[in-house]
Amino acid sequence: MSFRKDFLWGGAISANQVEGAWNSDGKGMSVADVASYKPNLNVTDYAGHNKITLSMIKEAIDDKSTKFYPKRRGINFYNHYKEDIALFAEMGFKSLRLSIAWTRIFPTGEENEPNYDGIKYYENIFKELKKYNIEPIVTLSHYEMPLNLSLKYNGWVDRKLIGYFVKFSKVCFESFGKYVKYWLTFNEIDSVGRHPFITAGIIPDQCEEGKLNNAIYQALHHQYVAAALATKECHEIIKDSKMGCMLTKLTTYPNTCNPNDVLLSLSSNLGNYSHADIQIFGEYPKLHKTFLKNLGVEIKMEDNDEIILKENTADYLAFSYYMSRTESSDSTKEKTAGNTIMGVKNPYLPSTEWGWQIDPVGLHISLIELYDRYRIPLMIVENGMGAKDVVLEDGTIHDSYRIEYFKEHIIEMKKAVDMGVDLLGYTSWAPIDCISVSTSQMSKRYGFIYVDQDDDGNGTLKRLKKDSFFWYKKVISTNGEILE
Ligand code: BG6
């Protein structure tokens, strides 16, 4: 066996990390536009980077520059998209995962009519992709939503958000349905618990004292219902469309065979799965309901929510995979950073400069676990390594560490496919350098394409091909057969 003939090789980007043009052509302010770059924080201090207060937001609203807010400038994909898509095409991309900025279509989320300029912009992108036969995979919500909805309703805590999101989704399906077959509702929906503001617009200051957990799970419930309703609309409006749900795959190992470590890793994995369970099986797992009850969380549901969830489940499961985690019942064990979540250091694994543990076999394990549990097609929509790259005088960038990372992961992915896992595609994060979601750094680079810009926004924005560019091109042209 091998990768299917129509395997969707490609890359993944998100609007708020690449587009820039944060206030052009009628775009409204989003939660990403108030994420500031904090140069003096330890890069692995996710709590520090994700900290948000009402006064920080007000300060950001008053500051009209991009200086301290790198996501406002991105890599100016907004104006460079033709050049960037041509480079993706040169690598032979079969697919590009991208997201639509809600605030380009509905600047505050509450308008009755969409912003025509926003629709036109995405339509141009889809036309450009079509020119090269690159299949778009579109995420409706990738760490970006109208700031207005966050300030006014505390984001997804309020049920009204379901209606606003479904309205936005319908406009997307109606406007872009002729170009887009593969859709995704929420990027890494599980991350509402880890960074509630960028994922769900929840401002902790606006939550009742001691009730943040309630807000998080209520917001999640509203997102599950909204995702189900968007799935229904998608199927009705676009013939043959496929709507996926998405998980951060946080594969967690027990630190030892101490049963207490095993129990901890089991509950951690079940917590991670619960989000996909709800969207794929169409109901809250019984164990998850008990978990919420023990946490003192009571979710307000409406009468037909359970029916909506049951009747509109996801067609495929997409997931990001960067690393594995380790749980230990011994609280003195050394911790390491991860994809916005900490774990105990695994002595068998090397780490990136940001402390993310590199574990290709973990991807193999994840694919087997997920396919065995859900038995629907899978898609790897993010996988990659953040690193500091050096540009030599002749403009070359020798990123052998990145090639090695991808090679090892693709080898393990292939082994899982050979075992029978139904895998639709693989989109690396990110094919072009962009602003880091967790640290807002530019110097945390993931791309096959280098972008000349530093953390402070200085640079020409010139695009340069790294060694990995040529390597990935070869991988795609041989459908994953040649990895050297
Ligand atoms: C994923 C996100 O969790 O991790 C991406 O979906 C993000 O948006 C990626 O960029 C890598 O994280 P970071 O913090 O290194 O940008």
From TrEMBL:
Lineage top rank: taxon: Bacteria
Keyword Transcription regulation among record annotations: no
Enzyme Commission identifier(s): 3.2.1.-
A family per Pfam: Glyco_hydro_1
GO molecular function: hydrolase activity, acting on glycosyl bonds
EC class of the enzyme, as a word: hydrolase
Claim: DNA repair is one of the keywords in the record: no
Protein keywords: Glycosidase, Hydrolase
Family under the similarity heading: Belongs to the glycosyl hydrolase 1 family.
Protein name stated in the entry: Glycoside hydrolase family 1 protein
